[in-house]
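Why do we bother with holo predictions? Because pocket geometry can differ from the apo form. Keep that in mind while you read this record for pyridoxal-5'-phosphate.
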Amino acid sequence: MSQPVVFTRTETSRPASAEHRSKVLADPGFGNYFTDHMVTARWSTEQGWHDARLEPYHPVELDPATTVLHYGQAIFEGLKAYHQPDGSIASFRPWANATRFQDSARRLAMPELPEETFLDSLRELVSVDNQWVPTEGESSLYLRPFMISTERTLGVNRPAGSYLYMLIASPAGSYFASGVKPVTVWLSREYARASPGGTGAAKFAGNYAASFVAQTQAAEQGCDQVVWLDAVERRAVEEMGGMNLFFVLGSGAEARLVTPELTGSLLPGITRSSLLRMGERLGLEVEERRITTEEWEQKARSGEITEVFACGTAAVITPVGKVKHSDGEFTIGDGAPGELTMKLREQLTGIQYGKLPDPEGWMTKL
Ligand code: PLP
Ligand code: COI
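The structure, written out:
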């Protein structure tokens, strides 16, 4: 079971034409197009990890009684491959994604994919689909590793005995259609995303399934995204649908960066932890602590909270301009992107695109 997993390659018969690819890469959007190949690997109680393959991208056939379709054991990761100035392709902290994938697997009683195998799968896919890594502007190749349970049974008294790991890739432009324009967010008091002891800290598919009803409500209120609050009191700010949140208190040399502490019900974002480190390097005071909606509104109105932004792999750093809730709304600063928000954004993307020094050694060649 601990033997290295070796990927068998099956060549694609019909890769996309160069014309189709360049048309897609000119305006990829997010999550709409996929590259020519994918990776698969299987796990069973008897064999452990086996049958790892690099194959042409193709649909997956599942028996209607496959456990994932009924009981939802499904986890995923999200990371990006960036074109570097020297022509190489690198990813941002992929080992952290490999570790979080294992953490998610443990929470969902699924097998842990060895971190080396996770990294190898990225390298395999990127090596054959490297033409799909965009070279222009702030675009990248979004990598989506995921795992589902595949046992054919309706039995629910134990976790499934077999699993399928897959990796697909999708060229990505900006996550929000509006680019770096500030977003308006909706404080969700009716619905909660995750509760203490639940699955909120895992990148578990069900967390996202449970979020759509609130996301629809947010859209009906003219908002771009939902802000999740703690499930018990609906007061402490947790995170957004696919992003963590940061608050800037004060400004200039006095600025402090505050982000909700990891309570077990929000996702420990890799961008989040990187920004905490970058904040420290900039000499800022950084705090991980409880922050309530009352504090947010009161300090935004008094001007003490000067900037708020969301961060994540897909969304990078996105300023929050306005907040709405069932009793009203308020603006952050003058509603425009904040100075520190944009500075951190420039530094982060500078590291990711190989344009700025990488003092922590976060970039990993694929
Ligand atoms: N929170 C949730 C719910 C997410 O899905 C994501 C995206 O992965 C994040 C936060 C940000 O995490 P990361 O910075 O690791 O992409
Ligand atoms: C990511 O940033 O990788 C995410 O997973 C967010 C969203 C696309 C689910």
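The first strand starts at residue 8 and ends at 9.
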